[in-house]
Fold:
Amino acid sequence: MGGKQTIKYLGEKGIDLPTEIKKAAVYSTLCNLPASAVTLKLKKNLFYKNLFIAISATVPPMESELVAAGEGAFRTLIE
Structure:
């Protein structure tokens, strides 16, 4: 499970976490969004760019304005 998924799960469960879960540690790799956008724009990655756009359109909006702003900026970069 990824760092974002783990944090989301823990936050949603809150005090209702299973008793087996005592602690959690997460980390996520850094992502250079401008460089990723440039890579997705390459002709050889058109399939992945279109897939990313299609999948991201189905994801509910992020609650954090900062995350939502970053996501919007990334989509703008690759389109």
In short: The chain has a mean pLDDT of 77. Residues 65-78 form the longest helix (14 residues). The CA atoms of residues 33 and 70 lie 9 Å apart.
